[in-house]
2,3-bisphosphoglycerate-independent phosphoglycerate mutase
Amino acid sequence: ELTLQPLSGYSAFPGPVVAVIMDGIGLGPADDSNGVHVAYTPTLDRLFQDKLMFRLKAHGKAVGLPGDGDMGNSEVGHNSLGAGRVFAQGAKLVNEAIAGGTIFTGRTWKEVMARGGQGGTVHFIGMVSDGNVHSHIEQLYALLDRCAAEKVKRVRVHALIDGRDVGEKSALDYIVPLEQRLAAISGSGLDYRIASGGGRMVTTMDRYNANWQVVENGWKAHVLGEGRQFTAASEAVAAYYAEDPAMTDQYMASFVIADGGTPVGTINDGDAVILFNFRGDRAIEISRAFEEDVFTEFERVRRPDVLYAGMMQYDGDALIPKQYLVEPPAIDRTLGEYLCAAGVTSYAISETQKFGHVTYFWNGNKSGYIDKKLETYDEVPSDRITFDLRPWMKAAEITDRVIEAVAGGGYKFIRLNLANGDMVGHTGIEPAVRIAVETVDLCLGRILAAVGKAGGIALVTADHGNADCMWTEKKGKRTPMVAHTLNPVPCIIVDYSGSNAFVASGCADPGLSNVAATVCNLLGYQAPEIYDPSLVRLQP
Ligand code: 3PG
Ligand code: CO
């Protein structure tokens, strides 16, 4: 049932189809706040004039998020690109499970409550913001309220500070109300507190094995109670701001809340731990640290015997974690599965920070190969720095390898992710964002030349915006904007095959989920019927 039918009237061409995902490069207004606009981008400028240039929706309902106020992100973006249709995503599924109450009737929640009833502490680890990319603080509130309603005596929150999907110094907007909420619950005789925390980029939320030190920092703070001590999380944030005016939330060192030198909430045998983030990439490593019997990524010192559960299952291949509160989106029949069934060879590459985006997210949150004989996944190791310091990142290295893969002729389908627009966009450092975008443009030019030489077809797109808004202005005062945007993204098809076979299909209101069908067509196959329609059709 995974068969692809040939596209009749379409003749084979020599080169590969190459999908370039320019992470975080959206289409914003033509003004100075737009890093894509202000950068020198001769290649993109030329592409934006192309007759097969589409503007794709990359946020909100078009990618399975709860509302059209939700910015896009790499997970939902790459899921949509790779699965050819829209699935209700974690943010939405968790909301529904809470609203319908099903989250509290499942086996996992009941076991967590049992731990609480037997004198164990119930711990919630996760990011406290309303970014809705990895988590939502309202969902945490719902879980806390339910614990209180079920009379769980002792609850501890390990609060990861965002400043990346929300304002870069917005921590207190979330920490203060959270502290108030916990205090209010505690007023009725229960004992609910924040126990530890830290900025998300240095505490717990590493991804793709980029830097396990980050997870170790979190383990020490959350589990062992080791780290700089404060009497309250709001005090920690205020102290960090006061000590370094340049400090922003995502980079705040981990902290431990203590009473008279004693941490108030280490994680111990008999406790329950819920990681309340729904998105997987930055949730897998800490989950492994709790779950794996044999573990060599760092010295855990002590591994408490806890009931560990995720908000969702984060990896559907490796089954991480074993227990979870909400079923993840059942993403099936991905483009990768169809192409493998059709015997199409493929090559996927990015640098570490986005490696899983073109493999794991692309394949519907499954980390393994679909068919190792047909697929090659390639990773260029990322630097372990904040990327404003080297905004070119590993784009040139990725490009070198792509050119080799194109010229080698061994792959029919090549996909790559250039991380710069997004990773540098998240730093909010303007000159660095410009260089990031210019790097992408330069590399894109090289890739297109290679595709041209091979007689292939390029599809150039992005997963969501970011660099396209570097700051916002209120009353003449500029604030750096580090998060993603709501802007559409480009999708340009550049045909060097000589056939010039395709014209725009005229499909209405296209989004990222229309790309997979398009790739099928470019490769000479009819798109599966279940897929959202292709952006192109054969010239009549
Ligand atoms: C991150 O995890 O870095 C941000 O929250 C989202 O960025 P991404 O969706 O581009 O990975
Ligand atoms: Co991003």
About this structure: The CA atoms of residues 143 and 399 lie 45 Å apart. The chain has a mean pLDDT of 98. The domain at 17-88+330-538 is CATH 3.40.720.10 (Alkaline Phosphatase, subunit A).
